[in-house]
Design brief:
heterodimer, A: about 500 residues, mainly alpha, two-stranded antiparallel ribbon, 21 helices, about 75% helix, globular, B: about 475 residues, about 0% strand
């Protein structure tokens, strides 16, 4: 089942490429059908319910390279299930957003789109570190082509910058994971890259620090965290709309996923000492990203910088590592995925109609395109953290959890809630309000776009008013992750702690 | 005393020698391109078949000169395969060009013979013999298109510098011999570190560094790569360098030179500098063959990681890493130069970056092969290059060579930039609709398909090949 999820997209991509000869719409339908099939495969997991014990919902394992104990090992728990559902959902949105925008080499476009998504699914599922790395790197290649071929005016620069940042940081991770496997080999005499085996590795604190940094840098580049964020505004701005949706909605989440799946469980000792630094970087991202977002005149760039700001909350929440914060992280990932995808789709449709992203040349669009403007307002308000919508839940829970760990940092992070309205509303004000700078006779959202947007709206509202339905899915994972910590903490200190990270000795 | 078993173990090399003689006689009797080609291919195939019977007898020392072992045989298979690819490329490449191409095949066979001797050498005499057989064949091959200025220039450059390198090599060997009184690698280990033999070993390494185009002995590389005909460049880049690497590893392990003070610092230094300088020089090139030349300097630096590590992690893992990387490097280099050869019109070589603009839309198949080869050179997963890089990381981390691995990471980042530049160029929309390009014969496309399959196959499922080296 799990391998089928990936395989369907891989095959679908090839079919979409070949389908081009049967008409321009054929690849689009093929892509939609492949994603729909994946969606159907996910239904049983949600329908089956989520037991309190036993985190893993599904698991598959085949031998791959026995020489180094590498296997094709996929596994799914609550968090990966949610993120996979998000990936497939936004995959649909990307296909919808590209329906009229992409006019050339349609088959190859959808091939790259589906293969990127296949790589992302692989990242969310892989439980073998070697396999994880393969997916991690392989999803960059089709995304590179998406930016380089269908991107905007400065695409060559943006595409190569994106590729270089992720690849070089990825090699650091490769080095770290190879060293981790070798240390395990020296202890046990067995080569293995399996997640659960490597979790048992005994590390000295110095070594653990270096290894942790190798992983941390790779994931923070992708997240992105300050100071590794500089590829993001370029890549997101230059990518075609479908590419931006996938980049912002899904690909950034792989960085967060890597942190929560690998870095923190693998290196608990050093992560505890390191958490002030990481939370500091998170706060820096929140404030710095927010301020830069406010200063942009390019619509997509503004949304891109706002992503940096929102991902700052994720970093803060992850390193607070308690139940509230972790649930907040999961909610933020989902809600930001939906809202940023919607904003990029909006910016994409504006650009498709008036051929500019420069907000200085917009203004007064509300009278021309009331539906677009209203939807834009909705998602801006969602992004700024209006209670009742998904983003609020996520960021509120993160702040709640982080406050127990580090009050000053949390106070600083909360300032982000003040900056967010400023840049979100300036977007609306400059683009849609005011007098018309130029006369545009443009078409408002049609039925297809309205349908896509209303799905996104429904998702945002649902996450805002009934977040428990999502929290239930990830609940088992959160409890299980924290259980290990609590036990370790109890062993280290005589009195039970409230979940704050502390030096954990392995049994 | 040489026994029958010894002869059987040597059969691959004997078959090559015989094939060379047969081809030479055939040319003397009747000049015929097709005949020479068919005889050469048959010779290489026979040699490949004899490997099977030789592999049952390994490892085997035959006279003090030659050691036939598993790694040597695996390399000979790779070299023969590369020779086969080169021969097929040459057939099409020289078919449309003027001149008498028959001797090309003879020289390819002798080059392969030289490489085979190098890969099995365990003695200074066989070391030198193998190297000279290989080099002399290459001088002629590089300058084969006599009327081309560039090829002549490249041939003369290679000849002169190679001659100097051989002089260094001989003098180095003489110094070592004067000190130790032996020329066998395994006996040399007795007295490392004394003054004349250290100097001698350094001189030998200078010669090896020249052949491998390691910095600072790399100055000839780009000109020779650019000037030589594309199929010959492929042969030079793969077989010649690979065989010297096998020799270096054997020599290094058996004689213990890697533990000699000074050398244990110099070799890693050369590796780091080669990775960085090679990649930096490739960054701003606009000529495909020069890009590949500079990138090969960097790849030789990467490969040195395995050799340096061999001292700490033992010969088996190092040889495994070296051979896996070499196999990947062979496949991707041959594929890349194969595309260049197929792209080249009869009157010149398609080596300018501009020639590749919009290739994805005019000749998608060639562009796909080239992109996969380049991505593999960059070490992207699911290609052979990544498995090679993974092995280097493993060997390097086992040996705690953090500086080398750091340079490897930086070098790979730089490398990615210029490989992607080529890919990007191919993905651009062509400015004007290209005149319908000549279609290459089916044989070439089958060859490229096989190489593509090999690159992807090694990358996706390397287990069978690894089992071959690590039973």
């Amino acid at each position: 089942m799990l391998a089928a999820l990936i395989l369907i997209l891989v095959v679908g991509g090839l079919v979409a490429w070949l389908a081009e000869r049967y008409g321009a719409n054929a690849p689009r339908w093929v892509a939609a059908v492949a994603l729909a099939l994946d969606g159907v495969l996910l239904v049983p997991y949600f329908a089956r319910g989520f037991p309190d014990v036993g985190v893993w919902l599904d698991d598959v394992r085949w031998r791959w390279i026995p020489r180094f104990g590498i296997s094709f090992h996929l596994g799914m728990d609550g968090v990966s299930l949610l993120l996979i559902a998000l990936t497939i959902f936004l995959g649909f949105m990307a296909v919808a957003a590209s329906w009229t925008e992409i006019k050339q080499r349609i088959g190859f476009f959808h091939f790259n789109l589906l293969w990127t998504l296949a790589g992302v699914l692989g990242v969310f599922l892989a439980l073998d570190l070697f396999l994880f790395f393969v997916f991690w790197e392989i999803m960059i290649v089709p995304m590179y082509f998406l930016i380089a071929l269908w991107g905007h005016e400065n695409r060559a620069y943006a595409a190569i910058k994106f590729f270089l940042f992720t690849q070089v940081s990825g090699l650091l991770m490769l080095l770290a994971l190879v060293v981790l496997a070798i240390i395990h080999y020296r202890d046990s005499g067995v080569y293995t890259f399996d997640y659960f085996d490597l979790l048992q590795t005994n590390l000295e604190v110095d070594t653990a620090l270096w290894l942790m940094l190798g992983f941390f840098i790779a994931f923070t580049v992708k997240l992105p965290g300050v100071p590794f964020h500089t590829w993001l505004p370029d890549a997101h701005t230059q990518a075609p709309t479908g590419g931006s949706v996938i980049l912002a909605g899904v690909m950034l989440k792989t960085g967060a996923y890597g942190l929560l799946r690998f870095v923190i469980p693998f290196f608990p000792e050093v992560v505890a000492d390191f958490s002030p630094v990481a939370m500091g970087l998170g706060v820096a991202g929140i404030l710095y990203g927010g301020m830069l977002a406010f200063a942009q005149s390019d619509m997509k760039r503004l949304v891109a910088y706002s992503s940096i700001s929102h991902m700052g909350f994720v970093l803060v929440g992850l390193y607070a590592w308690n139940a509230a914060a972790l649930q907040g992280v999961v909610m933020t990932l989902l809600a930001h995925g939906v809202s940023s995808a919607a904003l990029f789709m909006l910016a994409g449709s504006v650009q498709e109609r008036i051929h500019t992203r420069d907000m200085g040349r917009m203004g007064g669009l509300w009278t021309d395109v009331p539906r677009m403007a209203a939807i834009g307002l909705f998602f801006s308000v969602a992004a700024l953290g209006m209670p009742g919508l998904g983003n609020f839940i996520g960021e509120f829970l993160v702040l709640l959890g982080a406050y127990r760990v580090d009050a000053p940092v949390t106070a600083a992070a909360a300032l982000g809630l003040i900056i967010a309205p400023v840049y979100s509303l300036i977007l609306i004000q400059r683009a849609f309000h005011g007098g018309a700078r130029e006369i545009h006779r443009i078409r408002d959202f049609g039925a297809r776009e309205l349908a896509a947007m209303s799905l996104l709206i429904v998702a945002t509202v649902w996450m805002g008013v009934y977040p428990q339905s999502m929290l239930n899915v990830s609940d088992a994972w959160v409890k299980n992750s924290l259980k290990g910590w609590q036990e370790g903490i109890v062993q280290t200190y005589s009195k039970p702690s409230d979940g704050r990270l502390a030096n954990r000795r392995r049994p | 005393m040489i026994t029958t078993s010894d002869l059987i173990a040597l059969l691959p090399l004997i078959a090559l020698s015989a094939a060379a003689v047969v081809v030479m006689l055939a040319i003397a009797v009747r000049r015929n391109h097709r005949l020479a080609f068919v005889l050469t291919v048959a010779g290489i195939l026979i040699s490949l078949i004899t490997i099977k019977s030789a592999s049952d007898l390994v490892p085997r020392v035959i006279t003090p000169l030659v050691l036939v072992d598993r790694y040597g045989l695996v390399f000979i298979v790779m070299a023969l395969a590369a020779g086969l690819v080169t021969a097929v490329l040459c057939r099409e490449y020289f078919h449309v060009r003027e001149g008498h191409p028959e001797e090309i095949y003879l020289l390819i066979l002798t080059a392969l013979l030289g490489a085979g001797v190098l890969a099995t050498a365990r003695h200074f005499a066989s070391f030198f013999l193998g190297l000279e057989i290989l080099s002399v064949s290459l001088f002629v091959l590089i300058a084969y298109p006599l009327r081309e200025n560039r090829s002549l220039e490249a041939g003369v450059k290679y000849l002169v510098l190679s001659g100097v390198a051989s002089a260094f090599l001989l003098f180095g060997m003489a110094l070592v011999y004067a000190e130790t009184g032996t020329m066998e690698f395994s006996v040399l280990g007795g007295a490392p570190g004394t003054f004349p033999s250290t100097i001698g070993t350094m001189l030998i390494l200078v010669a090896v560094g020249f052949k491998l185009s390691l910095v600072p002995f790399h100055l000839w590389t780009a000109d020779v790569y650019q000037g030589a005909p594309a199929p010959i460049t492929a042969l030079l880049a793969t077989v010649s360098k690979g065989s010297v690497f096998i020799l270096l590893l054997r020599y290094g392990l058996e004689s213990g030179i890697l533990r000699v003070p000074v050398l244990d610092v110099l070799l890693p230094l050369i590796a780091v500098v080669s990775m960085l300088v090679g990649n930096f020089l490739a960054l701003r090139q606009n000529n495909i063959k020069r890009i590949l030349a500079y990138s090969s300097i960097a790849h030789m630096g990467y490969l040195l990681v395995a050799v340096v590590a061999s001292n700490i992690v033992g010969g088996d893992l190092a040889a495994e890493a070296l051979l896996i990387y070499l196999a990947a490097y062979f496949a991707m280099t041959l594929a890349a130069f194969g595309v260049v050869a197929v792209m080249s019109p009869a009157d010149r070589e398609a080596d300018d970056l501009e020639d590749y603009t919009g290739l994805f839309w005019s000749r998608p198949w060639l562009a796909t092969v080239f992109s996969v080869a380049l991505l593999s050179l960059a070490g992207i997963p699911l290609t052979a290059g990544f498995i090679g890089k993974f092995y280097l990381f493993t060997a390097g981390s086992q040996g705690s060579l953090w500086l080398l691995l750091g340079a490897l990471i930086v070098g790979s980042g730089l490398g990615l930039y210029y490989y992607l530049r080529v890919v990007f160029q191919m993905a651009q929309a062509p400015e004007l609709a290209p005149a319908s390009p000549k279609t290459a014969p089916v044989g070439m496309h089958l060859l490229l398909a096989a190489l593509l399959l090999l690159i992807v196959g090694l990358g996706v499922y390397p287990a069978p090949f690894i089992d071959l080296l690590h039973p």
